[in-house]
Automatic annotation (TrEMBL), chains A, B:
InterPro entries: PsdUridine_synth_cat_dom_sf, PsdUridine_synth_TruA, PsdUridine_synth_TruA_a/b_dom, PsdUridine_synth_TruA_C, TruA/RsuA/RluB/E/F_N. PANTHER family: PSEUDOURIDYLATE SYNTHASE, TRNA PSEUDOURIDINE SYNTHASE-LIKE 1. Residues 9-104, 144-243 form the Pseudouridine synthase I TruA alpha/beta domain. This is tRNA pseudouridine synthase A. The active site is at residue 52. Its EC number is 5.4.99.12. Substrate binds at residue 110. The gene is truA. It catalyses: uridine(38/39/40) in tRNA = pseudouridine(38/39/40) in tRNA.
Length: 249, 249
């Protein structure tokens, strides 16, 4: 039995999120059904974490076990032939049998795309912001989020975890053509954390909050003080980081 | 009565092409129904030309008459509010009452996008070419198409026109990130001409034809000697050109 680690790209538009659930088609379900076709028996996959309905991934990571004598490059080709074209396998590696796509995560990068102009081709891939944004003010606000903080104000109030302390290593706003990209690299993120941070920063950009209000919000540890949750379709799980020692066989 | 000229962007994925037809939803039909809602009576639009099912536009041009006392900028906002988000109005101008979106065309630019890597987000917007391409050979072939030629070998055999002579002013291959873009600027193009030229040039890129075969194909004036018709979803009507004298009021 060998263990494979795959890096997956998906357009989340037509899915009810990553994780299997009773209502609606999910990314996990489609990949597991495809692996079942190849293996002639059910194959369970473990992902680095969930993504919500309509959220995308450039680099979601999964692992699974296989008894097939197939090279990783052939696994990529076989899966891409069988999967629908809104889910693509970008890379596959054989890893040690103790590699865990979920528990070994040491960091994640998310990006959130917004645009200020109408664009038929980006309608499911970035969020249209029809009001003008003060990019310099957003950058000032963004700086307050970097570091180790209790992010209770920036996650769903009912988040099932006692520890809401997380570390954001880097946060930046990238101007790329007609779009603005929020990039966050951190130890891990709470439920809806990126979308609430972005929703709040967009309010900073239109002058509803001052940049230094972000500091006050962090201190309040109360979801009610932060801004709205930005829509799902601007969000991408961009990259998942693992320790060097887990780089593969 | 005033005449408006609008520049339209559309993602052609979910449409049966530009022009109204009995089977399947078309771009023209959706825009006309939207204008009818605004005007409380049917409004006919005239486009610069047709695009096929799944073909896109960055800059299709239409005209129509209106008795509404509405500024062009307000027309853009009103239409974008009412239209589905895969059809966007980019610009609207009032023009002289003799402006004709179809008959006044003096040139068109089309672009055709291909990529060599899997990409879930570009699946409907560019064509995946899974074999390697010799870009230098394609550029040599492309050069033969520039100029005034009889393009009978590069259009649908049953094309209903006696005159198959057209002029290509510029043709180039642009390398942009992971994608290759064929750009054609010409006086006008025959039915399926861009897709047949691209299909043939891709065969040059993989070594099935030599670049100088393009010259031989033009001389043959026979659709059977050229390559396959490339798929529709890589094609974009990029820009439509009108005389300076028709620039608007």
């Amino acid at each position: 039995m060998r263990r494979f680690k795959c890096t997956i790209q998906y357009d989340g538009t037509d899915y009810s999120g990553y994780q299997v659930q009773p209502n609606g088609l999910t990314i996990q379900e489609v990949i597991e059904k495809t692996l079942e076709r190849m293996h002639k028996h059910p194959v369970k996959i473990i992902g680095s974490g969930r993504t919500d309905a309509r959220v995308h991934a450039q680099g979601q990571v999964i692992h699974f076990n296989t008894e097939l004598s197939i090279a990783p490059a052939s696994m990529v080709k076989a899966l891409n032939t069988l999967l629908p074209d809104d889910i693509r396998i970008r890379d596959c590696k054989e890893v040690a049998s103790d590699f865990e796509a979920r528990y070994d995560v040491v960091g994640k990068e998310y990006r959130y795309f917004v645009r200020q102009t109408e664009d038929a081709f980006r309608r499911h891939q970035s969020v249209l912001i029809p009001y003008s944004l003060d990019v310099a003010q957003i950058r000032l606000g963004l700086a307050y989020l970097v570091g180790t903080h209790d992010f209770s104000s920036f996650c769903v109030a009912k988040t099932e975890t006692d520890n809401r302390v997380r570390t954001i290593y880097e946060a930046e706003l990238i101007e790329q053509g007609e779009e603005l990209i929020f990039r966050f690299h951190g130890s891990g993120f709470l439920y809806n954390q990126i979308r609430i941070m972005v929703g709040t920063l967009l309010d900073v950009g239109r002058g509803r909050f001052a940049p230094e209000d972000i500091k006050r919000m962090l201190e309040a540890k109360d979801r009610n003080v932060a801004g709205v949750t930005a829509p799902p379709h601007g969000l991408y799980l961009w990259e998942v980081f693992y320790p060097e020692s887990k780089k593969g066989i």
